[in-house]
Amino acid sequence: MITPALLILGSASLIATALLRLARIVDRVRKLSEASQRSDDAELARSERRANLALIAVAVLFAAVVVFVATGIAIAIDRTTGDRLFWLPVGLTLVGMGLIVIGSGSMVIECAFAAAQIRAEIGTLRKR
Q: Given CB 3.0 to 4.6 Å as the disulfide criterion, which of 38, 45, 50, 71 pairs with 4?
């Protein structure tokens, strides 16, 4: 029963990272709205894309936590049935790990968009 707990801990760490990135996106959009009456549409679109990716990551990673909790329950059920349901905890663990991969992939894509946004801002500053 230790393995699901460790996977939950890892998922929680990824969730915290995704929520932090989402908060930074929100701060950035608020700063853009305060800076001028009319924000750059391209920059707002990039921020919206980043926010959507971060939200997907958070949702998928929370789903992974739920699956890992279910894995712990499945291990207990498997033990009480005399190891007749050995496939259930294994299958749930695989699903949860797949969700972690999807959530992490979403965050990698969001980071790539963030890097592109920074490069675009640097290009704009150089033109001034």
A: 71
Please give the Cα distance from 4 to 70 (Å, whole number). Answer: 9
CA of 33: how far to CAs of 27, 102, 115, in Å? 10, 32, 21
What type of residue sits at position 100?
A: I
pLDDT at residue 34 is higher than 90:
no
Calculate the CA 82 to chain-centre distance.
37
Q: How far apart are CA 36 and CA 24, in angstroms?
A: 19
Q: Are residues 117 and 46 in contact, defined by beta-carbon separation less than 8 angstroms? A: yes
3-state secondary structure of 60: helix
d(CA 118, CA 124): 10
**Contacts of residue 15, Cβ cutoff 8 Å, sequence gap at least 6:** 58, 61, 62, 65
Distance of alpha carbon 68 from alpha carbon 56, whole angstroms: 18
Average pLDDT, the chain: 90
